[in-house]
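Morning F.,

Quick status update on the modeling queue. The single chain you submitted on Monday has been processed. Sequence for confirmation:
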Amino acid sequence: MRASLVTSEARPGADEDAAGVLGEVAVLLDGAGIPQRFRAGCHHSVAWFSYTLAAHLLARATDPALSLRESLAAAIAEVKALHEHECDLEAGSPSATVVAVRRAGEQLEHLVLCDSSLLLHGRDGTVRRLTDDRVDHLVIPGDAGRPAGAPRSAEAVEALRNAPGGFWLARHEPEAAEEALIGSVPLAELAAVHLVSDGVTRAVDLLGTHTASTLSRALLSAPEEVIRQLRAAERDLPQGARPRKIHDDATALTLRW
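Structure tokens below.
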């Protein structure tokens, strides 16, 4: 397996994405940039959480006796144990999206939790994007009376984080791992895979400068150029079309066999 990594932080010194490879396992975590009031029970940074959970997940997932969901649950429990004695996690704690892959014989196992993505680039040239997009399809009480295009309140969305009928990501609840999307693909069918944070898939979902297929091909040939063009397109967005964060941490981890 050959691995390459490109990453661009939204703000210097404040990258909350974490990615790495250990043996036959690769992971990417995107720390959730939620307002401080929703993680007020913990004094640790979002970056600390995503980096620490990534390290524990890599270590756990190298054990073939554990499924990827079991590996993630164990890693979440281990990180929780590191700070639950000094932080009131139920009052709000950092969280992160997760993408993980593992070679198991002639199969590539995969796990996706929340809105980071896995791009499966087939040897036949086709590209399949796997994303847990439940956060984009929330049914929130009061939505029926909300004017079209009006933003939802942050409190209403937060109430559905790691809650039945809502959306799930890695936080301090090991049971969130059971909500991850999982599957496997024969390695013989794959030319490459990309683990990408939603800062990269902005090129598809926000900017419209790529499709999943063109993004995958561009990441194979010129990943640094993908990031350069992404940042330029973000800066060129008209004022009314800009998201809350003009720039987001953007990370892509590419694997080839």
